[in-house]
Sequence to fold (80 residues):
Amino acid sequence: MVAVHLWSSLTRFTDGARVVEVEAATVAEALKQLVETHPGLGPILDGGISVVIDGEMVPNRHTAIEPGAEVYLMQRLKGG
Fold:
C-alpha cells in the first residue's frame, strides 16, 4: 500500500481524508486508483499536479513507487 497525502482543498472529494491509501507500483497507477475511488479528483489531477515521493519531486507519471513510500500531491509547481 502507498500512502497518498493530499493538500487540504482536495479533502472535499475524499470525505475529509488527507491521506488515502492505494495499491500502486507507479505514479500513474496511484493517480488512476485515486480517481477510481474518488472521481471528483479527476479534473484536478488532469489539470496538472506535482508529485513528491519520499521528499523528491518526480519527473513523470511512469516513476516507480516503492512499497511503503509516502506520496504527496501538490499543486503544480512552476518555475520562472
